[in-house]
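Annotated sample (chain length 224).
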Amino acid sequence: MLLPTVGYRLAVPYGEPSRTTCATCGVPLRSGTAGWLARRCDRGHRLGVPWWVTASLAALAGALLGAALGAVAVLPVFLALAVLGVLLAVIDVACHRLPDSLALPALTVTPVLLGVVALTTGQWADWRRGLLGCLAVGLVLTGLVLLPGGGFGFGDAKVGALLGWYLGWLSWDTVILGLVLPWALNVPVLLALLAARRVRWRTKLPFGPALLGGALLSVLVTTG
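Output written by the structure step:
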């Protein structure tokens, strides 16, 4: 429920600081923690998407992960990733960017959190496979970023590497599906937008939501 304003303030072009004024009326946003949690500016304009959108998406993702994984020690870490994923998707849709301020800390803390799970459960083989999954997905997406005209950004590669940790924790099949499914998800979205004349063939869609949705779907398929 608190994600919309955070996403709103972080949804800025690359290299710019987080938003400090309301884009609708220009009034300065509140400083401190209150400014990152307030749903409206001082003149009453909503900041970001409606709260029920992010709450519903996070609840759905969490419920699906809980049903797929069951009551296992690693579930809370996956649920935290689901909430972060909703925030990343909202930002990417708004400004075609996956900010380092979210991706890099998550990449740093993930091996520690999964290491704690491995320490308590003895799942070090899963931890090592997660590390390899992170490296594999990160390298594949970095290669696509470096291709001329590929339409991918380094934010996609960083978030992909982050997802690779979690997909690799589960299995190599999950990693492979997590790499393939984003393209399968983007095709119907592109066709629907073309039919509605909202985009053109050369329009570049944000890849983050498809990357995150494909990761979730791969978990459901391989653990069901």
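Annotation: Residues 172-195 form the longest helix (24 residues).
Annotation: The chain has a mean pLDDT of 92.
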